[in-house]
């Protein structure tokens, strides 16, 4: 039995045509969901990329793995899904990246791995090594195809054909200056297809695609899939000042950082056209991958997981990129197809209970019949995939965390009057309410039924005081229950060391 674990970067959870998105067309992922299971309330545990992927790969909340921002090392004492399957005899492969910074302890200060965070996840073999956050092989491939060598390889994602772009008053959105068959998405899928075709034993691979991550520039024909003039208006207050007045952190984001969305609506329209086009390009290439699996006979022996590391603000709340506490940055897609007969009865089911990125490592290990390490904060989704419903005792909310420190720059600390270790927030979000707790700032509380756009902070409203206290207590309970287990399940004494594993929740049909 095989595992194909796919991530696309910065993909908002609603961006599937199966969910009724008015612009995005994703027929191949829709078909995968109809033959598998769609988790429609799936959430990342952190942003940006490295913290989120650390949760994804270790099954741990940010409060435990402590890879808080891009470039912060992931403690080597932690296991991950690749290490676990390697110990079981598999040789997992990687096409793309995991945004991992190596633990520097014990390394020579001149070790080149200390100058970037593009190392592969410990335990996995990279078939597309990265340098300067770009695949070395892909850059070499572009040069063989006759493209000019860029001073900064990352520019291959952003340089468009010459002309006047829509955002500058042009008549169209200009395409990326690469043919779609030369774009990294196509290249990575080709490499993955070729590798799978060479396998003669059970295999596990992680296909990690950069797109639809910014810079937002789509190749032909995907830059023409949508009319920029018909793009939807962003979900936001009438002006940035009204948005910034809601909380000091928003004021910082909108007035003192790179996260501020453009005031020019044409720029936002152009970003949307490219973002949706890049999503559709990924879907088309995944269609090629799925067709290859079917043609080679691997389709009915492969667990397929499709998800993302985090979302994208895309102009909502006057923000771009991914940060803060809004759902747009944390709600992400999750589709799982189990090929075995046990999943036949639930194919095409849509799960509306909350699932989280930390659930994926336990799910993969459970599917292989392997033990789930005590470090994991998530739970296997296999019971839901087989039964069509979540087990009794399943979580009733989603949680995520965001650390807004900058180790190299103390500007945000000075602006907000915080220490570096106070630059953090935690979120608890259920079907009705959302509570945002800050280490050194006032909290936020939203009534999502009355205010789904999250524009009215009710934290100081006397009518909501009992609710605010209730959710603060829920947050504290969650943090205590999910504190780092370390060696807490082991005890020394008469008779030597004994260990007793204990579940984090009582779930019927699992653990």
Could you explain how this protein is built, in words?
It is built from 13 helices and 18 strands. The chain has helices spanning 27-34, 49-58, 62-65, 81-87, 136-144, 184-198, 240-244, 248-256, 265-296, 360-367, 382-387, 411-416, 465-481; strands spanning 2-8, 37-43, 46-47, 93-95, 125-126, 130-131, 134-135, 204-209, 302-308, 331-332, 334-337, 349-356, 398-403, 424-429, 433-438, 444-447, 490-491, 498-499. Strands 1, 2, 4, 5, 8, 9, 10, 11 and 12 form a nine-stranded mixed beta sheet that branches. It has a five-stranded mixed beta sheet with strand order 3-13-14-15-16. A two-stranded antiparallel ribbon has the order 6-7. Helix 6 (184-198) packs parallel to helix 9.
Secondary-structure blueprint of this entry?
Blueprint: E1 2-8, H1 27-34, E2 37-43, E3 46-47, H2 49-58, H3 62-65, H4 81-87, E4 93-95, E5 125-126, E6 130-131, E7 134-135, H5 136-144, H6 184-198, E8 204-209, H7 240-244, H8 248-256, H9 265-296, E9 302-308, E10 331-332, E11 334-337, E12 349-356, H10 360-367, H11 382-387, E13 398-403, H12 411-416, E14 424-429, E15 433-438, E16 444-447, H13 465-481, E17 490-491, E18 498-499
Helix pairs in contact: 6-9
**Helices and strands: which structural class?**
alpha/beta
Our count of domains comes out at 1
CATH superfamily: Alkaline Phosphatase, subunit A
The number of strands is: 18
* Rg, Å, rounded: 23 Å
* Terminal Cα span: 22 Å
Residues in β-strands, percent: 15-25%
Give helix % range. 25-40%
